Amino acid sequence: MNTVWINFLRKYGPIPQNDNMYDETIQRYVKQKGIRPIQIEAQYLNALIENFKTENPRSVILTGTAGDGKTYHCREVWFQLNGTFDQWEKSGNIKEISIDNGRTLYVIKDLSELSDEEKRHILFIFIRTIKGLQNDSIFLIAANDGQLMEALKFVEVNDVATGVYEDIEEMLVSDLREHSGYSLTMINLSRISAAWALPRVIEAITTHEGWASCDQCIYRDNVDAELRCPIWENKKRLEGHDGNETLRQRLGNLLELCEINGIHLPIRQLLLLVSNMILGHPDAKDRLLRCRDIPNILEERSTSKASIYRNVFGENLPEHRKETRDIFNTLGRFGVGSETSNRVDSILIFGEDDPELNHLYQSLVLSDNYYGADHAFRAEQRKYLEGISEDGGASFLDLVRAQRQRLFFSIPEEKAEDLRLWELTTFHYAGEFLSKVYRIIEQGGRPHPQILSRIVKGLNRISTGLLTKTTDKLILATSGSNSQSRVSKIFEGNISVARDRGESVQIKGDDLGRINLEVSLSTSPTVPVVKLHLQLIRYEFLSRVAEGALPGSFSRECYEDILAFKSRLMNAQAKRNKEYQEDDYLEDALSFYILVINSDGVLDKKTVEVLN
Asked: Which pLDDT band, with edges at 50, 70 and 90, does 421 fall under?
């Protein structure tokens, strides 16, 4: 049995004491057990090593959240520069090593562990070094942003240190890698994309030589599916056995959407996710399988509970433990399993008996004889359809929920649109946003005009509170005294979507990789371009409203964000009007316009005059 490797992999999972999640303890464990640690390609490691080997190296500060690999980078640099394991493990928070260019490299793997006096002393040397006043030393420091700024406060302010605190703070806030006044490089490991890191984590785990111990296991690839090890089955599915990489691609899509939405998931969380996907089972000790559990799992015919598609969302864990893990909290917001489409549920529930759906039932459900329609699913399905379920069908509906999760990760791409794949999530437009907006802009293109038209329609419906179909211009309206009213029928102006005398509405990317709706009102530099950060939830909100959802029914926060955007548009319009001395009233009469919807659903305006 493959006990050592599987037990090692379990330690990366969501167990109460997951010590292996912390780099400091990995080396001790692997030395004791004689097992190679899980090593993931480090995006900046080679550049760091090359830097410290040059004649004129720069000091480096590694920032990022817990689990991004700051300690790992420091340790690997130490080893690559001929530092020893014993020296690294020796007590003391400041490591020193002489390097080939004649300098002493100071490695601080955790700035927060230093005493106040140590901070005061070592950071003063650090400041002298980055300012070129001390050429016999160089630094590699790991710290999150808050720790770094807090530690710098301990440095005595004098002619040498003046201004350094403010300059480093500016580098952090502005995400600058370098500053012209210092020999310093700042690397934020939180900029490593989870979507980039995921395939590397999967590769490191699934190709580890520890799996070789499974070669002689009778459960590894048993021809009888009911006698096949779920751990090995999950590993094969994760690595894309038989060339099917749909699971990895869809999971990568979810992580990429999280990144676009401003949610960073460090490598530590990805290790936790992948280990749970392979080993998760609600009936096992700590909810993660061991080799010794497999005979009982097979005997009890409960392999379906080990489904990798459930484990993605931490379904093997009790609710309180799942809620404390960022990765499951984040992926859980997509609602996969809880959300569905009528077509998918019809296939799952009625597909066996419905001639029009049977071919889909065969290809999507029966074809997976391990996690698809197993004996338990078909037995509960029959009871449900015949109305003889003892629990009113609750057991079957739980199984249907698990099948929705499996289908999200297994429906072939060529059937995704027809089966409305993304309706299995909270965000029906997420797939479109990712492939037809974000990636198109990333490649230097522009989204399809129909997408922009839908976003404009959603904005107009929120701005006016009317079910308009107007898409060629942005309508600005108030209730007369309040631009934040739910229904605003008093016309204040409009902005052409197509370019017209400085006016335009576009979906564009910015230098930070964000997607914005950019509204131009004038060619004048004094009239600002008004931008709305179009992250996933706002895109979904505007699209849903455009298709008929009531603004307040989806997201109160998004609704208020759009009203605030409308206010900024009106302020920009007022600046433009002032600059060009435009007004909408006559000398002898006060006139204003009331918005009305014509028979085509397009907004029109009706003049109302109040004579003096």
From this structure: very high
